Fold:
Amino acid sequence: MEKFSYIFPGQGSQKVGMGAELVQNYPIAREIFDEADAFIGKALSQLCFEGPETELKQTENTQLAILTCSVATLQILKHHINVLPKAVAGHSLGEYTALVASGVLTFADAFKLVSARAKYMAEVSVNQNGTMAAILGMDKKRLQQICDKVDGIVRIANYNCPGQLVISGEVDAVHQAVALASEEIGSRRCRLLPVSGAFHSPLMESAAEKFKPILDTVTFHPPETHIVMNVTGDVISDTDSIKHLLYQQITAPVQWEKTLNTMWNSGVTDYVEIGPGNVLSGLVKRTLADSSNIMNVEDSHSLSHVIDELGNGA
Structure:
């Protein structure tokens, strides 16, 4: 299993109880959660383990919680698997865990950046009337045509996999686009998402501008393995380019389908989703069909399985 990759989930994968079992069984996971609690001066770990869900779902909490849980899981894997993946990538917020996995950022610096990113995105969400919607079963070219004819700001925000796209923008514009798309593919295939803002759209521009100088306060190290970035869907090795793409990522669409194809074309055949949930595993299945081996890690049982698989193949 020399050609495996690590992929990391983004906002929306959070759930109450995430990481609790790992902390009980692995001291290295406890250390990561303790570090996170110390960074922000409050019990982020308790919010992850016990909720309440309404507080965990708040952007400024969600992003830090998923980052911490994913890094804790990653550290356990690294302790047991003494070989680097061929490539790493993360969906939106998950890109920061991928940067930790590739050695570009320390956990402390990733936490600092995500804390600022989440804060600024949450602030914009309060002041901007934005939302997002999933559109299933429509060609991306046709959906782009619909977005172009709508009054107001609406863009394709996530190219998740063939037949699964997400649009983002002003509430009225998104509703118009959903109505037009529903006429063609049916209302059941178009649904508004329970999000607080128009992520990965021009409405997030002020958040990106506030975030930009924060990027200059941390050190970016050369990646130790291939990292495929959201904005381009390509392998990026230059640290200045990585930094700039993190700035762009706040307003640019997530090129996840291209990311997976880039990994596959580089020889990656095995995909390990690290962190809460298995959303990305589903996207791999729909993008790469039956040609890939997919695993996810979020608890002791799934962790043991992946350690056995990677350990036997490494």
The first strand starts at residue 4 and ends at 8. Residues 59-80 form the longest helix (22 residues).
